[in-house]
Model the fold of this input.
Amino acid sequence: MEVNQLIINSLTPFSTIDFPNRLAAVLFCQGCTWRCGYCHNPHLLTRQTGTSLSWKEIEIFLQSRQNLLDAVVFSGGEPTLQNGLLSGVQRIKQLGFKVGLHTAGIRPNHLLKVLPELDWVGFDIKAPVADYAKITGSQNSGHNALKSAHYLLDSGVDYEFRTTIHPLFFDEQKLLELATQLAKLGVKRYLLQSCRTTHCLDKTLSTAPRKNEWQTEQFLQKIRAILPVVKVNI
Ligand code: SF4
Done:
């Protein structure tokens, strides 16, 4: 699949938070088949976009940053839904950058093909497997995410699993259940982050009361007893 068929909505020229310990540019891929109510990039969900960047524009920008950036991250939307992803990753490597991927594991078999070319993956793990559909609106989403998580962990590629916590989907018990599932999978690096409630796809989630019991040190110690390396973004 040609790199020119990749639909990139937009680009962040400089980021210190999208690939740990690397200065990175971020490419936002258009399209996602899930509909998480808390999605804060609703404009990236449809396949069609009013504006997009051509691959030529992206390469011209990246060539001008070759000694200034370490890495490029494919984010979205869901990058693995685009068949041109592998070509895009390979072109970025040829330009001399490390390559990161943000994924929710929506398309396991495509992730498997791309993994050997990647340097780091931020894996959005949404909930215990049985609770996925409530968040994503997609029936097989938990199954696909689990399969992708196995592929990632088996690949040896560096990673961080991340969970976005909206109080309507998580209480302490649910978080402990998820941490236990991740520990059984063999996850070693994990990030918990508060849901940003501005610009949620489901507007009712924007107004839901914020309950932050999970942020107490006492509760985080319970999580760390299950998964030792846990970072927190409040
Ligand atoms: S998987 Fe990600 S991009 Fe897709 S709807 Fe959910 S939060 Fe949005």
